[in-house]
């Protein structure tokens, strides 16, 4: 059994493929169950520059400016969150207006600003959120496919106007809506 020494914990942190961690993630990674011990270690690592605080309870191996906004958003908004709606629709050219926020779907409705970046999370019922049909789960973040983003947008705003519908496969959107259940 290996001991939880500072060098050991740091090595585990650096070996991890994740760049963002909740306090709970760090406790599991380092096999620390005592909340006070964990908080003390995280505080010291943040003070030394080994960890960077994104917001309460969420940390990164890198300063926010060096993080992919998709990974940061998924970490901030928690389990099951994924990039969707306007952010994905702009990427595919379905909407052409500029957007202010990186838009996510998750378990809570909230708006967060970190540095110059704004993040918006729309709450989705857990039975829909955890149905991953049309969601591409990557190593460090998840993102909706174009058709899932369209289905999500129509879930929130049934009369939403799309600037161009050419890239949208409406049969896939209909299938996703049916499989997800909304």
Q: What gap, in angstroms, lies between the N and C termini?
A: 49 Å
Total number of helices: 8
Largest sheet: 4 strands, mixed
Mean pLDDT across the residues is 93
Question: How many beta-strand elements?
Answer: 9
- Taking all Cα atoms into account, the compactness measure Rg is 19 Å
Report the portion of residues in β strands: 15-25%
What is the 3D form?
elongated
Q: Give the total of domains.
A: 2
Give the low-confidence spans: none
| Share of helix, binned | 40-55%
Order of helices and strands: HEHHEEHEHEEEHEEHH
Q: Largest beta sheet: what is the strand line-up?
A: 4-5-7-6
Structural class: alpha+beta
Overview in brief:
The chain has 182 residues and is α+β, with helices and mostly antiparallel strands. It is built from 8 helices and 9 strands. It has a 4-stranded mixed beta sheet with strand order 4-5-7-6.
Topology:
Blueprint lengths: L5 H10 L4 E3 H8 L4 H14 L3 E4 L2 E3 L8 H9 L4 E2 L1 H7 L10 E5 L3 E5 L2 E7 L2 H4 L5 E3 L4 E3 L1 H11 L13 H11 L2
Could you explain the architecture of this structure?
41% of the residues lie in helices and 19% in strands. With 182 residues, it is α+β, with helices and mostly antiparallel strands. The protein has two domains: 6-65, Arc Repressor Mutant, subunit A (Orthogonal Bundle), CATH 1.10.10; 76-157, no CATH class. The strands form three sheets. It has a four-stranded mixed beta sheet. Strands 1-3-2 form a three-stranded antiparallel beta sheet. β8 and β9 form a beta hairpin. α7 (146-156) packs across α8. The mean pLDDT is 93.
